[in-house]
Amino acid sequence: MQRPAEPSLKELIAELVGQFERLVAQHIQLARQELTADGQRLAFWAGGAVLGLLLLVLGLAFVGVALLVCLQLVLPVWAAAIAVASLFLLSGAVIASGSLRNLRRNTAGRALEEAQETITWLTRRK
User: Fold this and answer.
1) By residue range, what is the domain housing residue 21?
2) I need a surface site. Which of 9, 88, 113, 126 has the fewest CB within 10 A?
3) In angstroms, what CA-CA distances link 118 with 6, 20, 31, 78, 96?
4) Which keywords does UniProt give here (predicted)?
5) Which pTM was predicted?
């Protein structure tokens, strides 16, 4: 019985190049999918943060007016206005920092990690 012929070096290199091209294409496709999903999630969080801040500001405006009227009974008008303005500034800072923290937490997907692993593996093989 005759043994099947082993592939030549040229055929092996051609097959290796083809497999590497498929691997790179698959990594790029996975990265695009993850970036699309991350972008949609980021847009959702940003939209939620903007809507939440808008409603909070409107609500605080009414609470602020009521608080200002109440504080005018015991404080001078200027002191009551400073107290209410400070409340607005503090509330806005807390909400904005929380939203920004969530937006910064958006990390790169697994595709970038896998691409780094592939590059590391290829450079060690030399």
Assistant:
1) 9-124
2) 126
3) 28, 10, 14, 65, 39
4) Membrane, Transmembrane, Transmembrane helix
5) 0.40
